[in-house]
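Morning F.,

Quick status update on the modeling queue. The single chain you submitted on Monday has been processed. Sequence for confirmation:
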Amino acid sequence: MSTKPDWPAGVGRIILDEIDSTNAEAARRAPKLTIPTWILAHRQTKGRGRRGRPWADPAGNFSASLLMFPEEPLDRVAQNSFVVALALYHALRDVAPSEGYALKWPNDVLLNGTKIAGILLETSGSTAKVDWLVIGTGVNLAHAPEIADLEARATVPSCLEAQLGLRPAPEALLAALAHHFEELRATYLQRGFEAIRAQWLALAANLGGIVTARTMREDITGSFEDLDQEGNLILRTAKGRVAITAADIFF
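Structure tokens below.
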């Protein structure tokens, strides 16, 4: 009987003890790489999250970035964040089983209502085509940020060890993540975003509940109704349905 190899074929893997940022390292290596490649660092010294926020990453947590060269149009490239989120959900269930995982729009993974993981996409290219895409993933395996360091109303952070008493090895999580991503990416390319959207919605946190979307200009509060075909969050507000393209979400 055949068994799954420990690493997907045709995908590179680089493991580092310490780096400033795995996303930054992926960008530096992009001109010389030709295949999708995961870069794992056991510690980041200058990790970052959305909107340039610092991402605390002490030794013992998980930090990895996937460098890839997508062929899809620019307006679809960001949909890969949903592919990675689904892959990370399944990978976490593989290495740290729990029924408490959920996905939070646009790019977080929750465990028992606390934030344990985030995803950051960065691209380089023209308005016509992306030269490369980097998808960074950070998971709180052993440590979580101090609540005092977060903005008001942010989702409370936690870590796998505190929630489940488990601390999987970063290499084991990386292997599971890489395999699930390849499978889900194939689904996305063959069947389109709708197949990914349906799976994501089935795992979405607070679907049907009241949320506030904080954009760069305003706060919009409404019922989390749907995810549209582009990946925008659909809220039902007092003024009708509103599509949110980018925002911080507060429950």
